[in-house]
Design a protein that fits this description.
Shape: elongated
Order of helices and strands: EHEHHEEHEHEEHEHHHHHEHEHEHHEHE
Number of helices: 16
Oligomer: single chain
Distance between the termini: 53 Å
CATH architecture of the largest domain: 3-Layer(aba) Sandwich
Structural class: alpha/beta
Length: 436
């Protein structure tokens, strides 16, 4: 690739339209505005647009409200603002349906909208996580329907998003990124854009397909390793071995071991979703991803395994799950954030209701709309047994053995292995962890 540097120096060229103002697009919009770009934030939801223009974040992420008040993001539902932008960045969801089939609908819909206002000289970047081939097989043909050609009239690139909600160390500001494009000029322009706003390193990829494959590999790697440790947890539980203690022991090896921990399920928009995109695309290419499908099957089994642990724990007290009220702690998929995307809690609640006809209460201090009670104290008062699904700081600090005993809790299933196993057991409460 040529070393000729592309500059975005003129104010007329330093305009970016970011489509999608969620966990990915909104922080990117704030960062670009902070770095001197004029930023149009585009979304279909008028409520979300109104909140952004009022400098209030539509997603609950620490610091975003304050950031919006320091910068100027011009939010709109009018896709016509794309005409004014030098760079168009697409940050829309890539979900799966109930049968785990990839749903490219949001990307296809937005690509058609961008096509209407696309002009010569623009750079279009897809940040949404996709399987290899989507940019050239799906997005590019749509963008070219009005006669403009990628690599000649406009440039098409892919920079897979890297966002970890709640992570204060690694943020959109400093995390390294990879960029691929359909041609060398587009690659230079995309690298120059991200280098102008991000403090971390930007790695050019040899092709746009390899850039697409990076994020799929990252999340499939994590999914496979989590599945392995979840299966180990099920095995060790049968053998009377504490999986967490074994992991802590294995961590003392200074090489060739990367610690992963078992839990009640895998959530978030990436790990439980992205492998399906590769599985489906590889299938169309004639390859069967047996390993990835097995990993998904194991991780999808964990909510049911967790509820089964509660059934077994209550059996020790000679109680049926249908005769007690279960307190479910946590709706978000990870600690100390409000992000509920693909949260395994929903599957646990469905199992409790449909399969066991169990009564339950739910509380999450970060997701009041998903809670059936207003406080942890209220949930404990109304519950006979507990399932910890999210290791929020409040839960870990306040769910002490003496508190549980005072509320006459019969059994605790620690879906995150975050509570004091020894103290809870000593208090006469049946404790079950995941692999403990």
């Amino acid at each position: 690739m040529s070393r000729r540097k592309i500059q975005f120096s003129k104010r007329s060229k330093r305009t970016v339209a970011i489509i999608g103002l969620g966990y990915v697009g909104l922080p990117l919009a704030c960062l670009a505005a902070e770095k001197g770009w004029r930023v149009f934030g585009v979304a279909k939801n008028p409520t979300k647009i109104a909140l952004v223009n009022a400098q209030r974040s539509p997603v609950r992420e620490p610091g975003l409200d304050r950031w919006l008040k320091r910068v100027n993001v011009e939010a709109t539902t009018d896709f016509a603002v794309i005409r004014q932008a030098a760079v168009v960045v697409i940050c829309v969801p890539t979900p799966v349906d109930e049968q785990y089939n990839p749903d490219l609908g949001p990307i296809i819909d937005v690509s058609h909208k961008v096509k209407r206002f696309l002009r010569r000289g623009q750079l279009v970047v897809l940040e949404s996580t996709v399987n290899p081939g989507v940019c050239q097989e799906v997005v590019q043909p749509i963008l070219e329907q009005r006669g403009l050609r990628a690599g000649k009239d406009f440039w098409l690139a892919h920079c897979p998003e890297r966002i970890d909600p709640g992570n204060r160390r690694w943020t959109v500001r400093n995390i390294a990124r990879v960029v691929g494009a359909t041609d060398a000029v587009g690659l230079r322009r995309a690298v120059a854009f991200y280098a102008s706003i991000i403090d971390g390193p930007i790695r050019p990829m040899p092709s746009i397909r390899e850039a697409e494959a990076v994020k799929i590999l990252e999340n499939s790697f994590r999914d496979v390793n989590i599945a392995f440790i979840n299966e180990i947890a099920k095995s060790f539980a049968r053998l009377g071995i504490d999986t967490v203690e074994v992991i802590e022991g294995a961590k003392t090896k200074p090489f060739a071991f990367l610690a992963h921990y078992p839990s009640a399920g895998v959530g978030g928009h990436c790990i439980p979703v992205d492998p399906y995109y590769l599985i489906e695309r590889a299938k169309r290419g004639g390859f069967n991803h047996e390993f990835l499908k097995l990993a998904r099957e194991i991780n999808n089994s964990m909510p049911a395994y967790t509820v089964d642990q509660l059934v077994r724990a209550l059996n020790e007290r000679r109680r049926a799950i249908s005769d007690v009220r279960v307190g479910v702690l946590g709706v978000s998929y990870k600690a100390n954030v409000s992000d509920t995307r693909e949260s395994p809690t929903y599957q646990v609640l469905k199992l409790l209701k449909d399969e066991y006809r169990a009564r339950y209460e739910v509380f999450d201090p970060h997701v009041p709309g998903g809670s059936s009670v207003q406080s942890l104290e209220q949930l404990l008062t109304r519950s006979d047994a507990l399932i910890l699904m999210t290791d929020h700081r409040q839960f870990v600090e306040q769910l002490q053995a003496r508190t549980l005993k005072r509320h006459k809790i019969l059994a605790v299933v620690d879906g995150k292995n975050a509570l004091d196993k020894a103290a809870i057991s000593k208090a006469g409460i049946v404790y079950r962890g995941i692999g403990r």
